[in-house]
Design goal:
Blueprint lengths: L1 H10 L7 H8 L3 H13 L5 E3 L3 E3 L9 H7 L2 H6 L2 E8 L2 H9 L7 E8 L18 E8 L10 H13 L7 E4 L3 E4 L2 E13 L3 E10 L5 H6 L7 H5 L5 H22 L5 H5 L8 E5 L4 E9 L5 E5 L2 E5 L3 E4 L9
Parallel strand pairs: 3-4
Antiparallel strand pairs: 1-2, 4-5, 5-9, 6-7, 7-8, 8-9, 10-11, 10-14, 11-12, 12-13
Helix pairs in contact: 1-3, 4-10, 7-10
């Protein structure tokens, strides 16, 4: 991987570099460079190849920087972060923190990665993670009150993302129960919370967030355009460290409040962004498929659906809008 990383660093400025110049800088042949650039395709990096000009990563790559995060975060928020891991590659940021909990990494410990080889969504679905272009982050937060205090946590995290993105004056943002942030009906971000409970370390939540900043056209085509990114919304690629800091600032502010007051304190705010409210939906649960009209969420974060005139509550599932189920987003 060393040679691949060296080529990425050279091309990260977004400018064209000739094969000859890359070869001289790294001491490798032009055929080796060609092979490496093909490998970059495998990790989701778009490479432009132009005869007579060389190779270019359009738009370049912004790398995570602890110094920049410190610059953008308030002093209080930065000091809350007991551990920060910034990784080039990892299987998944959640899995990394699962291991670090065993080494006493607790509230609040952060993992950021440029690339995930096994990024996860809900129900063990894969989360496509092209190198360097999006936000892949996880945060450990310890809940002294135990697992019972976590009702609605995933919804709270979605609200924190919305609050962070509101700094850009974006319209059309909504929250799709239980874990998606949407823009004009397309998925922008996802949340995956995993709970770790044992007698030694207590109860920790690992909060995983994936936020699309720029998606290569290849991935868009794979997902049939049911997805969007911040570059599309803003018309320009945003500062990755700045948006990461905005999300962290909100999380580190809201989590202590959530721990003491519960989701009930935030439910009215969440309802203001409810993507499913009053829509005909189909909910896929592990055991069943339920069709009805979404009535919003209750104070615990449960989804309420009117089915044949009766209100039923659901604490997990995959919802799709319409009377005919669409394939769940992956």
């Amino acid at each position: 991987m060393k040679r691949i990383d060296e080529v990425i660093q050279l091309l990260a400025d977004g400018q064209f570099h000739s094969g000859e110049d890359i070869g001289k800088t790294l001491g490798i042949s032009r055929s080796a460079i060609w092979k490496i650039t093909k490998q970059l395709d495998d990790v989701g990096i778009e490479i432009h190849r132009v005869q007579g000009r060389g190779y270019c990563i359009p738009g370049g790559i912004q790398f995570y920087s602890e110094d920049k995060l410190k610059q953008f975060l308030s002093q209080d928020a930065f000091e809350r972060l007991k551990n920060i891991a910034i990784l080039n590659r990892v299987n998944s940021t959640n899995a990394f923190l699962q291991e670090k909990i065993k080494e006493d990494w607790t509230s609040a410990s952060l993992c950021l990665a440029e690339y995930q080889s096994e990024g996860k969504g809900r129900r063990d679905r894969s989360w496509l993670s092209p190198y360097g272009k999006n936000i892949y982050m996880s945060l450990v937060w310890e809940f002294v009150a135990g697992p019972g205090a976590l009702n609605g946590l995933t919804l709270l995290v979605g609200l924190a993302i919305i609050k962070a993105l509101s700094k850009f004056n974006i319209t059309g943002l909504s929250l799709k129960w239980p874990n998606d942030v949407m823009w004009n009906g397309n998925k922008l971000a996802g949340v995956l919370t995993e709970i770790n409970v044992d007698d030694i370390n207590g109860c920790q939540a690992i909060i995983g967030i994936g936020l699309n900043l720029h998606l290569p056209s290849k991935i868009r085509n794979q997902l049939h355009n049911q997805i969007t990114d911040m570059q599309t919304i803003l018309g320009a690629y945003p500062d990755k460290n700045y948006i990461t800091a905005l999300i962290l600032e909100e999380l580190l502010t809201l989590l202590p409040e959530f721990e003491s007051k519960g989701f009930e304190h935030f439910v009215d705010q969440w309802r203001g962004y409810d993507h499913l409210l009053n829509k005909q939906i189909i909910l896929h649960t592990i055991q069943d498929k339920v069709e009805g009209v979404a009535q919003g969420v209750d104070h615990t974060g449960a989804l309420e659906i009117k089915v044949d005139g009766n209100i039923k509550k659901f604490y997990s599932g995959e919802a799709s809008i319409g009377s005919v189920a669409k394939p769940p987003f992956e």
